[in-house]
Structures are given as C-alpha cells and as structure tokens.
Write a structure and sequence with these properties.
Nucleotidyltransferase, domain 5; 44% helix; globular
C-alpha cells in the first residue's frame, strides 16, 4: 500500500512515498533556508510563494524516485495544520487537485501527529502506549499515546517553543539563522556551568516555558556589552559566546528531560519517543538516552533527517487514517491552529 505524503506547513516543501506506513521509498525535501536566513527568521509570504514554485517539482521527484505513478497510489496524505496558513494552503490545494482529477482518496494529517509517527519509520519501533515529546521551532509538547488516534496532551509550551527560543537567542548573540544547529555546535566548546540561567520547571504541571530563559540571556548579553567602555568594541568574544550557548542549551535540555522523567513516573509508561527539529540537537539526544538508561526506559529517537519537517512522517500517519476509513472531503481546509 503506497501513500504519497505532502507537507508544506512551514518553509520546507516536502513529498514522500511510503509503503505500508513504515517503509520509506522516497523522501524529498526542498529547503528555503537561503531565502529566510537574511531576515533572521521565516517570512510567511516568501515561504508560501516558494511553495507554489516548488510543490510540483518536489512531488514529481518523489514519485520518480519511488518509481511509481499516480495510478499506483492508494491515497495522498497532506498536512492540513497546524502551521503557516499561506504555506498550508499550497499543499492542501495541490493534494486536493490531484485527488479530484485522478479519483485518489485524500487523508488529512495533523503536523504533530506526523512527528509522533516519525518514530515508526525506522527500527526498532515503539509499542503502545508510549510518551511522545515533540520539540521544534513551533511546538513543544508532551503527549501520552495509547494507540492510533488515542492521544492525550500532558503539557505544552505556554509561550515560546524550544526551537523558537534557540532562534531568538542566536539572534541576540549575533549569530545566523537557523539558530539551533549553530548554538548546538558552539555549546560543545563552552562551559555549561558558566552562567546559571533559570529553569522554568513549573512543577505544578507538565507545561513548558522558555520566554524567561530568553530574557535572561538578553540580560546577560547586555551586561557583558555594557562592561566594554569603547562602544565600537561592544562585541562578545568567541569564548563568552560559547559559554552563553552552552549554558542556555543546558537550561533548555534540563527542563525537557526533567519534565519527561516526571511524566514517566506519573503515567507509568516505560517507552518515550523524541521528535521534531530540536530532536536533532546532540545534547538533547544524549541526555534523553542517558535518562532512559538510568530509568530503564526505552527511548526512540528518529535519525536526523526524520527529525526536521518531512513528508514521510505525514505519509506514515496518513496510512493509519486510510486503513481506518478516515477519508477527507474536497472541502478540506487548512488550519493555522489545529490541536492534536
């Protein structure tokens, strides 16, 4: 059973052909990083225009790479939210047009649901139930997964998502976009104990908050810059930047790992999946695996390519929608806000 997945929820135009919800036949990603990096973040209008240019070439490449035609597809799965509404419109409109013209079943997939099922695209695969920590530029949430369609949100961010905080701190430090990979690299040469940044553990819930941490970094940077008398020399040296990056990253990872530990204890679940763009962070991957070994918990983390936005995860989740008969109509509309 072949499912064509399409995801245009943010700035990457992606298409993938997946067999039986687990075997990736092709997976194509067209990045827009070069377009948005000079702005220090994603410009929604530019993102949607680029999707219009790239959606057909990307889908065509995915189909050719899989060696299949539209007649071979069992269904087309498209991400209909959450995300940037202009970007989502491109993917949904394209998917509906193909399905209508070729009489192919259409299924709608929540972007967060896709991240959850990215862990099923590689072995070993988790068994139900498990906890799912989703950490990306737009989302930071913790769910209990008891089966397909049986999701219970345990906690979510109250302000900035973890990936968003990375990008904003990178900008404060005068670094490039996207900030996650850059800060992760610099942190490896810094002292994570150099600055005692706050950890918003919010012990009364499983929610997350990173806005205070971002403000603390801003204060630290301003304090260091003010200490330099000559205004022309008010730039941070590389050693200090490395220390700030390491200390900031340690604060983020501490909160993510600690919250997951609390959820494991409360829910009495011994399996955890980590997904989303920030799941590619080396320190988070290491600490989550260490936590799993200490707590005798199975931790499932997709390979780097499946952490960031991709259509293979949409196809994987779409497979389950299709076999359960959850078919979308031609009146499907994307939604910028779409709870799981």
């Amino acid at each position: 059973m072949l499912i064509l997945g399409i995801d245009t929820s943010c700035d990457d135009t992606t298409a993938s052909v997946v067999e039986d919800g687990v075997n990736i036949i092709s997976n194509i990603v067209s990045s827009q990083t070069e377009i948005h990096e000079k702005y220090g973040g994603i410009v929604p209008e530019l993102a949607s225009r680029r999707h219009i240019e790239m959606i057909w070439p990307v889908v065509d490449e995915a189909m050719k790479g899989a060696g299949v035609g539209l007649q071979d597809l069992s269904a087309i799965a498209v991400c209909n939210g959450p995300g940037l509404i202009g970007s989502l419109l491109v993917g949904c409109s394209f998917a509906k047009a193909i399905c209508y013209s070729k009489n192919i079943p259409l299924v709608a997939v929540n972007h967060l649901e896709g991240h959850i099922f990215s862990s099923f695209l590689e072995e070993p695969r988790p068994e139900f139930p498990f906890l799912s920590l989703i950490v990306s530029g737009g989302h930071t949430s913790l769910h209990r997964i008891d089966g397909f369609g049986r999701y219970r949100e345990l906690g979510k961010t109250r302000d900035d998502a973890a990936g968003e905080a990375y990008d904003k701190v990178s900008k404060l430090l005068g670094l490039e976009y996207p900030g996650g990979p850059i800060i992760d690299k610099l942190a490896q040469n810094g002292d994570h104990d150099a600055i005692d940044f706050p950890r918003a553990y919010l012990p009364e819930s499983f929610d997350f908050s990173f806005s205070g941490l971002k403000t603390a970094v801003k204060i630290a940077v301003s304090s260091q810059q003010s200490a330099v008398k000559d205004s022309e020399l008010r730039t941070l040296n590389s050693e200090l930047i490395n220390d700030i990056a390491a200390s900031f990253q340690a604060a983020v990872v501490d909160v993510l790992v600690r919250k997951t530990e609390w959820a494991i204890k409360k829910e009495r679940v011994r399996r955890v999946t980590l997904s989303g763009g920030v799941a590619a962070n080396s320190e988070l991957r290491k600490r989550m695996r260490e936590m799993g070994e200490e707590r005798y918990v199975e931790v499932f983390i997709p390979s780097m390519a499946l952490c960031t936005d991709n259509a293979a995860m949409i196809a994987a989740a779409g497979y389950h929608h299709f076999i359960t008969g959850n078919i979308a109509g031609m009146d499907l509309n994307p939604k910028a806000y779409l709870p799981l």
